[in-house]
Amino acid sequence: MKKIVITGGTRGLGRGLARALLEQGHQVMVCGTGQAGVAAVTNEVGVPALVADATDRAQVQALWDEAVRRFGRVDIWINNAGVSHHRVPLWRLPEPEARTVAEVNLLGVLNGCAVAAAGMAARGGGHIWNMEGLGSDGRVVPGLGVYGATKRAVTYLTRALAKEAPDGVTAGLLSPGMVVTDLLTYGDSEAARGRASEIFAILADPVDTVAPWLARRVVTRAKNGARTGRLVRLPPKEAARVGGEVTVGW
């Protein structure tokens, strides 16, 4: 049985992972930024949850401390908290929205890595997983430049952590592929939303499909420098509808 913490675990893939890991017999604690979401995941999924903002190092530390108080240790820490933004060129993206994406997706992961690495080093070790996403491989999608830049940075940060982490602490990357959550961005025009909906219907998997698959690997592939994720290749007929073969994940 592993003791696992998931940031951003009150909705979407984080919530799905919490449920799947719990069903596999592990002890799980999550956090979210709203009291309503924290209460809901506790009551409906059955995992302890704490209100914590990943962009605040002190709140992340409080999450660690509470998990250790409950479980005695933390074996695996998953930096899952993330947000997206409206699909517009970066020069049209409002500064507050750009700042939120940068802070949650990068500073939040940095905080989680720092707190978990220090805490694990003091307690004999553990593994840190960070979530990749669109942009992690350098692929550029117009209108999602800020989001993609943060995910590219997370990949670099994780590789650096894998090389510099203290003894006993390891780090790796999770690439869930395209998942049907509120992070999917459809665009502002009716035509763009229609095209995106068609593509997502082919490419994106529901949380209930992805989470159990990923949860098994969170535990079994927790090795330094590990990178694990879903690979989706479209059949030729479906690929033609979206302009050729498309690969999602790794």
Automatic annotation (TrEMBL):
CDD domains the record matches: SDR_c
Biological process (GO), any one = chlorophyll catabolic process
Task: Report any Pfam family annotated for this entry.
Answer: adh_short
Q: Which GO terms describe its molecular function?
A: chlorophyll(ide) b reductase activity
Concerning PROSITE patterns, the annotation shows: ADH_SHORT (PS00061)
The record, for InterPro entries, names: Chl_b_Red (IPR052625), NAD(P)-bd_dom_sf (IPR036291), Sc_DH/Rdtase_CS (IPR020904), SDR_fam (IPR002347)
- Superkingdom as given in the UniProt entry: Bacteria
Family indicated by similarity: Belongs to the short-chain dehydrogenases/reductases (SDR) family.
The protein's name is: SDR family oxidoreductase
